[in-house]
């Protein structure tokens, strides 16, 4: 199914089996993120289609996303700026803490808000031409889409600060070493790997996937004692689920598990 041909849309959504691929579709603008693009992400991740078990995020035309659409940026009162940023936070949370595991295919520009969106995804694959950058300092602004929390956590506050102060670029292998990407692959190998990983992840027990996506980064935010207690609750709930019954039975019967 593809509904990207709908007039005026800035994303294309293709669903094959239980995997949805969302393509940012403003190649002329290097997929810069305007309010419409944010709203389309919001609509998809607020209510993922029934039967979809994993999603892939990518950009059309060789770039993932060149960040905030600077052409649509207009003067805002401080309070309006806060609302704008909070809306990005809400939509990024829908991606990170939603129902679907999300794999991003990172090509070309993964800049500013593009890196903020990428950092909300659970698996990140970088192609050789990728360019990770936080150029907000050069634009006279500050990150507002969650980078201080998500990118800061991936690469550390110290390195993020240096990255912003100097506006430097990191490529695929550096991104891999730093944790901005989990995989560094050859040209055009990102989408095939994303499909393979999406299949693998979608075949996991749904409740296990859900706990991985919801619990791990939340537990990191907790004091040690609360984190360990929360982990025990998650472990106990998963171990008494139907998924655990099937997973353990399949292991003993020497066959692949079938969870859905
Ligand atoms: C854009 C944008 C954009 C390209 N907003 N229009 N993001 C940035 O600071 C990144 C700004 N963009 C770039 O550095 C470069 O465009 C790229 C490295 C991404 C690509 O370079 P290139 O040579 O392939 O393309 P180009 O000729 O620079 O751009 C092609 C067109 O896309 C051009 O428009 P045209 O009408 O002249 O053809 C560009 O203006 C347009 N374009 N990027 C608007 N970002 C929640 S807060 C987040 C804060 C941020 O994200 S700050 C970082 C913003």
From TrEMBL:
InterPro entries to which the protein is assigned, alphabetical: ClpP/crotonase-like_dom_sf, Enoyl-CoA_hydra/iso, Enoyl-CoA_hydra_C
One Pfam family from the record: ECH_1
Tagged with keyword Lyase: yes
Keywords: Lyase
Record carries keyword Secreted: no
CDD domains, per the entry: crotonase-like
NCBIfam families (alphabetical): PRK08150.1
Family: Belongs to the enoyl-CoA hydratase/isomerase family.
Protein name in the entry: Crotonase/enoyl-CoA hydratase family protein
Organism: Lutimaribacter marinistellae
The organism's taxonomic lineage, starting at the top: Bacteria, Pseudomonadati, Pseudomonadota, Alphaproteobacteria, Rhodobacterales
């Amino acid at each position: 199914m593809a509904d990207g041909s709908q007039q005026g849309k800035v994303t294309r959504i293709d669903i094959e089996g239980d995997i949805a691929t969302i393509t940012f579709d403003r190649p002329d603008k290097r997929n810069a993120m305007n309010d419409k693009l944010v709203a389309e992400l919001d609509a998809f991740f607020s209510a993922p289609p029934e039967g979809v078990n994993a999603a892939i995020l990518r950009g059309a035309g060789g770039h993932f996303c060149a960040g905030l659409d600077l052409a649509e940026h207009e003067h805002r009162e401080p309070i309006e700026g806060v609302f704008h940023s909070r809306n990005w936070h809400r939509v990024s949370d829908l991606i990170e803490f939603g129902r679907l595991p999300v794999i991003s295919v990172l090509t070309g520009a993964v800049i500013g808000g593009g890196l903020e969106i990428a950092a909300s995804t659970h698996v990140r694959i970088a192609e050789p031409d990728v360019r990770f950058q936080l150029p907000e300092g050069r634009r006279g602004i500050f990150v507002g889409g969650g980078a201080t929390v998500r990118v800061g956590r991936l690469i550390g506050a110290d390195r993020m600060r240096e990255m912003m102060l100097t506006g430097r670029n990191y490529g695929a292998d550096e991104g891999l070493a730093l944790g901005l990407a989990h995989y560094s692959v050859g040209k055009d190998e990102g989408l095939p790997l994303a499909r393979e990983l999406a299949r693998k992840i979608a075949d996991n027990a749904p409740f296990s996937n859900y706990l991985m996506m919801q619990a791990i980064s939340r537990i990191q935010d907790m004091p040690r004692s609360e984190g360990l207690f929360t982990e025990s609750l998650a472990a106990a709930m998963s171990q008494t689920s139907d998924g655990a019954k099937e997973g353990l039975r399949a292991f003993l019967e020497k066959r692949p598990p079938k969870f859905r």
